[in-house]
Amino acid sequence: MGTPTHLSVDERKEIGRAARKEAPRSSHAAWSPADDRPDPIRLLEEQNEDRVPWLVPIRHSRMRVSPFTFYRGTARIMAADLAPTPVSGLTVQLGGDAHLSNFGAYASPERQLVFDANDFDETLRGPWEWDLKRLAASFMVAGQHLGLSRGDCREATAQVVRAYREAMTGFASMRYLDLWYDYASVDDVRAAGGLDPKELDRRLDRFERRARRKTSLQALGKLTVSVDGHHRIRSDPPVLFPLRDLPAEYDAPALEALALDALESYKRTLNDDRRWLVDRYTPVDIGVTRCLIMLLEGRDNDDPLFLQAKEATASVLEEHLGPSPYDNHGRRVVEGQRMTQAESDILLGWTEGREDRHFYLRQLRDWKGSVEVEGASPDQLRFYAGLCGHTLARGHARSGDPVALRAYVGKGDVLDGAITDFSEAYAAQNLQDYERFQEAIASARLEVAATP
């Protein structure tokens, strides 16, 4: 075999520096809506066409709570807004919806609680700036929601970018394998400091206890009832339906047969050892919530495994960045997650359902925990901003060129200030869109339902 040709570190640095000419770091401060900006409400309506009909009003109800909850549901709107903004030409595997609530904890294969990004429904290769701007703006919107001062909101937002830059400096100097093995455990978060040690220990201990309780065994008690001595998924409409309780027009027996066929197809996407593990479980019931959930039984009635099958449609980024290289969007999600996440669910895989519908599967609950920002102080929000910025940088360093990215973002705070300015302007745009969203609900253009 011939010797592969790789660019030297100096050549990669030059690529990053040259990218500043294409998109000066200060240019990322600009934001104003395009003259032909799409109607944001219409973008949401178009997305709703592919959603489970009875869950759409619940989704609207959750989004209407505040400008912050609205922002969490606007990945498609922001993708359209980011499309004409300056980019450096350096690409990474984007999470695609990198707001602060899409980071959290879960169990590693070694049964450690690790912190990382945890939502990849929109993942696609594209400009790193898009992820960073969406994440930074989420902190600006969250800070305003919390009633923090303008200075505190800007400082938390700037901390996202600062942490991203500083982390990229470290990742750019790491050996490839060291970068690939890098992850953040709860102990790493505790050692990072930045908050009063006693307060941080208290919060992390509580967070860890809650996350570790989220297992298939816990889900068994919460999501099932006993029927003739066997566990069956409970009926809790409109957020949870056993297939047996679906209206006749949905043809539950046919759906069950299709789901079982899809389960077999999913197994073929797993490594042999993990397929062997799943094969030891027997499917016993299927339910529909915001996704499909499947209850499997292992050695006995008290050895459950819950799998979650979530539909994967085209990423909202594809409208602007082109199609995914994968012909199955479930695989797109899985491959993007594996590329950027330090540790992934051992049962992560994909499958295809009827009418060419794509799904990805994972464990429903495996120590999954999210950070609650309600009531956060300025120091707490700033601490979390640094954690998320560092984590985003690791995913980008794994999937892009950390040396070129490091050369572009630089040592100074030019990028910090620019993206903070962008985030403040975009938070104002988000507020305007939220008000239009509320008007659409008031006029009955959008349907809402009581939030369970």
What does this structure look like?
The chain has helices at about 10-20, 40-50, 55-65, 65-70, 75-80, 130-145, 150-170, 175-180, 185-190, 195-215, 215-225, 250-265, 270-280, 320, 330-340, 380-400, 400-410, 415-440; strands at about 90-95, 105, 115, 125, 185, 225, 230-235, 240, 280-290, 290-295, 305-310, 350, 360-365, 370. By secondary structure, the chain is of the alpha+beta class. It has two domains: about 10-95 and about 125-195 and about 380-440, no CATH class; about 215-365, no CATH class. Strands 8-9-10-11-13-12 form a six-stranded antiparallel sheet, sandwiched between helices. It has a four-stranded antiparallel sheet with strand order 5-3-2-14. A two-stranded antiparallel sheet has the order 1-4. Strand 9 (about 280-290) and strand 10 form a beta hairpin. Helix 1 packs across helix 17, helix 6 (about 130-145) packs antiparallel against helix 16 (about 380-400) and helix 7 (about 150-170) packs parallel to helix 16 (about 380-400). The radius of gyration is 22 Å and the shape is globular.
